[in-house]
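Retry 2 of 3 after timeout on previous attempt. Resubmitting structure tokens to design endpoint.
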């Protein structure tokens, strides 16, 4: 029997970010997902084009998680 997985995609808004980095509750959220058996398998920055930032402005991050289905 092959392994079966379930997936979770979570968006984190950059509007809550501080000048010193990501908000502390993002780490808490990741810890919570880990305690529930979720494994972070990737992230992707969501970037909005901007006239003020040559590379665009990061407006959020998407986290991709998976965990093995039980049963």
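Retry 2 succeeded. Sequence:
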């Amino acid at each position: 029997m092959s392994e079966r997985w379930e997936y979770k995609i979570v968006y984190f808004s950059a509007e809550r970010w501080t000048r010193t980095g990501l908000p502390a509750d993002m780490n808490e959220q990741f810890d919570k997902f880990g305690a529930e058996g979720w494994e972070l398998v990737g992230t992707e920055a969501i970037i909005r084009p901007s006239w003020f930032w040559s590379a665009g402005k990061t407006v959020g991050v998407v986290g991709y998680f998976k965990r093995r289905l039980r049963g």
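Attempt log closed. The radius of gyration is 15 Å.
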